[in-house]
Amino acid sequence: MKSHFFHLMPYKHLPADFAARYRSVWVDVPSHLYDPVRGHAIYNEYLDELEHADQAGFDGLCVNEHHSNAYGLMPSPNLMLAALTRRTRRAALVVLGNSLALYNPPIRVAEEMAMLDVLSGGRFVAGFPVGSSMDTNFAYGQTPATLREKYREAHELVMRAWTTPEPFTFNGKYTQLRYVNVWPRPLQKPHPPVWIPGTGSIETWEWVARNDYSYSFLSYFGFKPAVHNMQGYWETVDRVGKDRNPYRAGYLQLVAVSESDARAEAEYADAASYFYHRCLHVPDHFFAAPGYMTPKSMQAAKTPFSFETLKKLSWKEACGKLPEEGVSATAARAENHGDAWKRFTSGAQFAEVEVDMETGIVRVVKVVAVHDCGLVVNALTTESQVQGGVIQGISYALYENRILDGGTGRMVNPNVEQYKIVGSKDVPEIEVHLLSVWDGVNNTHSVGIGEPATVPTAGAIANAVSHAIGARIHRLPITPESVLEAIDRAGKGGRA
What we know:
The protein is α/β, with parallel strands linked by helices.
């Protein structure tokens, strides 16, 4: 067995009432809580600890990647390993790792990791996590349903870049490169060791085993859930016909060492409480965006999906519970109360346009959409729906015009050649602001975004056009002809 020193580099100056005052330590944690002066001291303190771990005889030093959070201050863990290459001598340098789907193009990962392998003299270990939902779906805006497909393609590109001696062309679904030619080349052949950190996705088990990588289970929830997950992994290794080399697996667990339980509580309880109650203060709607986990993995998991179950655990309760069973909680949704149907969604939109006074052509430059839809459960999906509504509103405000035959009532332009809709090049900058309001009108505080994402767009554009040309247009769509007619009418003293 080999022992590694894994450092998250958390921000350790969050206020004592952080969990009560702020919604999350991830994604939307207020940046005013971060003090760069303290951050400078923290980085140097943590690097000193990693250097000491090398001197103390740990087999490896591990760092990892996270974004928009106070849980781990390493959006680029490669920078930390670069600093350690010159200040350490024996320990392996493990990045756990680079979330491949977040890099465009992913070839940057192959280049930087090759540099680290050469700088360290071949002590580098490459880690390729899919990445947490908070990092990938929310902080970096990746689509949950396609995240793993994009990750697998990026992995293929990196491995081919390391192992193919001549330049080649890569034509993937998400990345296309005419020339792939990594310089420098990795020192270790055919490539550095690859570790895949995970929290129990059963699809990952088979993929790791077939590629002869090492699976690293990240456990904050005790021994029993870890046993369940690792048994599942080793059974998968057997099923695909691989040997049970112990280095096929790693296991992360927080460890507190002291002379007695009482001494351990006195020495570590505050630090453990800070980690579990502040650094893991993540609401359920950030923890796993819809589509991030497959149904099969959700059904098989024993580790709880929610960090919220940790809120009220004391040190003794945690120590007493975790060795025996996973932390879990069951609750029933409360009954709706009040006249929930009376709660409507609402919003306001603002448009900036440019109008060519000679041709009458209107171009929408920017739309700002502000919407109140109760408690926002999935911000990415809600913002996408608002953006789609705005685009549809632009379409019927400026382009869509159903022409009917006066005699028969039949539509005479029933095709996309004559019935115009907004095109991708006509879509402006769309800035969405969601007002998340916990108003207690129902048991979830949630209200659908509905049609208000589309309804006000045309009015906002019409107002902007009116302000631009000094004349009001009263019918949709706002065509170049109607714009010129309004300008002409206003110029002749007619009704503006």
